[in-house]
Amino acid sequence: MFYRRDRQERRGSKRCQRRRLDHITESIIGAAIAVHRVLGPGLLESAYEACLAFELTERGLKIEQQKPLPVIYREVELDCAYRLDLLVEESVIVEIKSVERLAPIHLAQLLSYLKLSGCKVGLLMNFNVKILKDGIRRVVNNFPDSPRSLRSQR
Q1: What is the pTM of this model?
Q2: What is the DSSP letter of 145?
Q3: What is the pLDDT of residues 81-98, one digit of tens each?
Q4: Cα Rg of the chain, angstroms
Q5: All structural domains of the chain
Q6: Strands 92-97 vs 121-126: parallel, antiparallel or unpaired
């Protein structure tokens, strides 16, 4: 009986977390579309990052720009110069690109960031497209838990 209740509580908690992440990603995508409507394609990644950070802050979301992401190797934290473009609500990584087309290496980069950070969801956004919807990839971290998460760094 207790086992069943624990399982139901965990399932409910996971559902709640999934809804929260869905809400955050929807907000990020909405903000990115607003930025893209104003700026269009063709600018540097840094311009889109700054404008998206501003738009997300205006919408009441907590963001961190260029957040360092160290690598844990043999229980030692090493600064390998990885930086997250945006970390939204301490939960969703946003990797911004302005390229002709997304390449497999861009997806691999985001997957690595998700694995190293322990975050469950990331958005890969290529602003160099006519319709932003065509440049967005939502990526889910299916890796086992990371040796540490960004939350434990506080």
Answers
A1: 0.84
A2: P
A3: 899 999 999 999 999 999
A4: 17
A5: 2-153 (3.40.1350)
A6: parallel
